[in-house]
């Protein structure tokens, strides 16, 4: 038996911790199904709409098809689920008192939290990649039956696929950071959806100041990144694509730092 | 890595020095100092609210001391990257996630310390939870959770073990099992530190006692010494001539307490000497009996009123 402290042991432990809860192994597959389903149904609806208006393939019609590759509803569902799973990965441990058992087994708190952040982030990167590529493939295949499908080479199409891969772990990390700070299940479960999903709707696109703040939030940043219209978003204030990637990266970095370091001191 | 216990030269495993812990204005632990040695079961005794749990949490690095130090094997526990090979602890049997099975719970902890999976099955069998291994912990009785907590403590085969009120919720058979387990662990040369608010519990388990009351040290000594010191022997005498006997005994240096018209409680002289004095002066005696307080009474006497000065305890 070795007493060597290896980080991969902690990664393994957090992996087991995550997947040994019903809320993970039932919710995540269900989440994937709902997200892909929402996008597929949107594609069916969009195809019907194109038929009704008698649209012909070509021109900018594929840009509209890309809206079905990952819809706002799907991204909201993904965002809220990832945020709450992230928050519960922390508060379920703090709230149940398990954290004391964990920190007696591993007194290096920072290492425990870093492993947890790494595992949850990795799981949501993979989940984001799976639902995003499936959504793109299925939705565009549906639209392609009548020639409206956009190829991945279409300008901006890769962003539509890549943005959810980033959005899912960002939401999970924000949930973890909130969980680590508030340490209270009900508060974390209310604060996470509020910040991620509701706050953006309070900020209007019609006023430049409000919009400047709004596009610093994860969901609006995702909206900017998945806009493939040649005319842009046609707003008072429109952030650049690069700025929107930076916004998501900054949220990830700040949230991860908070989640890893906030429990470093203090009594548990 | 010093894994070979026979090579250990340090005899003090747990060392608490001038430990004070305040929560806001409340002082939970007040300038507490004691040591715990290997090879014994050391009882950590005190009434509810005496600061036992706080002390254990500070020793385990879960709470930061306001002042003073607590070390295990010469180092603050928080400085260890991994804990299970050094210290096993059961603090609160409820410190588990109710949604995980017993196996999953132990496997996450074992994995974090690089302990092989088969060890999970071994400790579950050892604590008698083999048949409940695949059940969710949320459905466990308190006694089963205590056993799971003890299994957690045993996972890393550690030289130091801490248990906070481990017999809570255990049935009589479980209580006996846990006593035997602690004795066996101590017999293997490990340091076993067990808290309880019940003296009667420690009477059957501990060799050594650390007694606290209101966050302060009351006594730290072998069980026998504590029992002897705490039990103030007194002699009850019944006589038709209490005034005469009282003056005789007082002259011989005894302290007296008048219980009723013919009964005196005497401390400072034993029954034989009292009988001798009465016989010499022809004082009749109806009763002459020695009363010794039980360990439980000794404990109550020492801890209930901590403002009372306790002889032999340096403050």
Strand content of chain B: 25-35%
- List segments of chain A where confidence is low: pLDDT < 50 over at least 5 consecutive residues: none
Which structural class matches the secondary elements of chain A? Answer: mainly alpha
What's the tally of helices of chain A? 12
* Parts with pLDDT < 50 across at least 5 consecutive residues of chain B: 307-315
Distance between the termini of chain B: 38 Å
Description:
- The complex is a heterodimer of chains A (268) and B (315).
- Chain A is an all-alpha fold.
- Chain A has twelve helices and no strands.
- In chain A, α11 packs antiparallel against α12 (241-261).
- Chain B has 315 residues and is α/β, with parallel strands linked by helices.
- Chain B has helices at 52-59, 102-112, 118-126, 142-154, 172-187, 199-203, 223-230, 242-251, 271-280, 295-304; strands at 14-23, 26-36, 41-45, 67-72, 87-90, 160-164, 191-196, 208-213, 216-222, 234-238, 255-260, 263-267, 287-291.
- In chain B, the strands form three sheets. In chain B, strands 5-6-7-3-8-9 form a six-stranded mixed β-sheet, with helices on both faces. In chain B, strands 11-12-10-13 form a four-stranded antiparallel β-sheet, covered by helices on one side. A three-stranded antiparallel β-sheet of chain B has the order 2-1-4, with helices on one face.
- Mean pLDDT of chain B is 88; it is low at 307-315.
- Chain A binds chain B through residues 1-6, 9-10, 12-14, 16-17, 20-23, 92-93, 96-108, 111-112, 265-268, and chain B through 1, 3, 57, 60-64, 77-87, 89, 91-92, 94-101, 104-105, 107-109, 111-116, 152, 155-157.
Quick gist of this model?
The complex is a heterodimer of chains A (268) and B (315). Chain A is mainly alpha-helical.
Features:
heterodimer; A: 268 residues; mainly alpha; 12 helices; B: 315 residues; alpha/beta; 6-stranded mixed sheet; 4-stranded antiparallel sheet; 10 helices; 13 strands; 32% helix; 26% strand; elongated
């Amino acid at each position: 038996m070795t007493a060597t402290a290896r980080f991969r042991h902690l990664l393994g432990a957090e992996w087991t911790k995550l997947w040994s809860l019903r809320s993970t192994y039932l919710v995540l597959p269900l989440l994937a199904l709902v997200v892909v389903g929402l996008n597929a149904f949107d594609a069916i609806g969009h195809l019907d709409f194109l038929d009704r208006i008698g649209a012909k393939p070509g021109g900018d019609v594929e840009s509209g098809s890309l809206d079905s590759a990952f819809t706002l509803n799907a991204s909201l569902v993904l965002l809220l689920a990832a945020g709450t799973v992230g928050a519960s990965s922390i508060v379920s441990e703090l709230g149940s008192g398990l954290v004391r058992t964990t920190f007696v087994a591993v007194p290096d708190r920072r290492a425990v939290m870093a492993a947890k952040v790494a595992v949850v982030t990795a799981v949501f990167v993979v989940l984001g990649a799976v639902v995003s590529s499936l959504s793109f493939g299925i939705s565009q295949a549906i639209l392609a039956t009548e020639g409206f499908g956009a190829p991945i080479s279409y300008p901006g199409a890769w962003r539509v696929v890549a943005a959810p891969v980033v959005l899912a772990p960002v939401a999970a990390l924000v949930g973890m950071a909130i969980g680590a700070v508030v340490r209270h299940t009900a508060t974390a479960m209310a604060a996470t959806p509020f910040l991620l999903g509701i706050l953006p709707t309070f900020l209007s696109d019609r006023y430049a100041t409000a919009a400047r703040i709004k596009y610093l939030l994860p969901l609006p940043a995702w909206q900017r990144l998945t806009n493939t219209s040649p005319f842009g978003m046609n707003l008072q204030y429109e952030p650049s694509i690069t700025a929107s990637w930076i916004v998501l990266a900054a949220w990830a970095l700040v949230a991860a730092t908070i989640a890893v370091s906030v429990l470093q001191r203090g009594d548990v | 890595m010093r894994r070979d216990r026979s090579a250990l030269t340090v005899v003090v495993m747990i060392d608490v020095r001038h430990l004070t812990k305040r929560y806001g204005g409340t002082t939970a632990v007040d300038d507490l100092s004691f040591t715990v040695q290997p090879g014994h079961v050391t009882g950590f005794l005190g009434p509810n609210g005496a600061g036992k749990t706080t002390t254990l949490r500070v020793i385990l690095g879960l709470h930061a001391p306001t002042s003073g130090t607590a070390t295990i094997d010469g180092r603050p526990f928080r400085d260890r990257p991994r804990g299970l090979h050094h210290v096993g602890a059961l603090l609160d049997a409820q410190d588990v996630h109710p949604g995980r099975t017993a196996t999953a719970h132990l496997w996450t902890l074992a994995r974090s310390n690089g302990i092989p999976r088969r060890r999970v099955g071994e400790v579950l069998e050892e604590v008698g939870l083999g048949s409940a291994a695949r059940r969710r912990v949320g459905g466990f009785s308190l006694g089963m959770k205590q056993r799971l907590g003890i299994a957690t403590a045993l996972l890393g085969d550690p030289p130091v073990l801490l248990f906070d009120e481990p017999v809570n919720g255990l049935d009589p058979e479980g209580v006996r099992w846990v006593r035997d387990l602690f004795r066996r662990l101590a017999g293997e040369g490990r340091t076993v530190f067990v808290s309880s608010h019940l003296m009667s519990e420690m009477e059957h388990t501990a060799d050594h006692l650390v007694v606290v009351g209101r966050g302060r040290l009351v006594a730290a000594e072998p069980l026998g010494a504590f029992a002897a010191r705490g039990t103030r022997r007194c002699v009850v005498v019944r006589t038709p001539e209490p005034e005469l006997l009282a003056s005789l005994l007082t002259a011989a240096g005894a302290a007296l307490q008048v219980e009723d018209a013919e009964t005196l409680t005497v401390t400072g002289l034993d029954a034989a000497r009292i009988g001798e004095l009465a016989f010499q002066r022809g004082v009749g005696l109806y009763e002459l009996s020695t009363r010794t307080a039980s360990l439980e009474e000794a404990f109550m006497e020492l801890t209930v009123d901590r403002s009372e000065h306790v002889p032999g305890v340096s403050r």
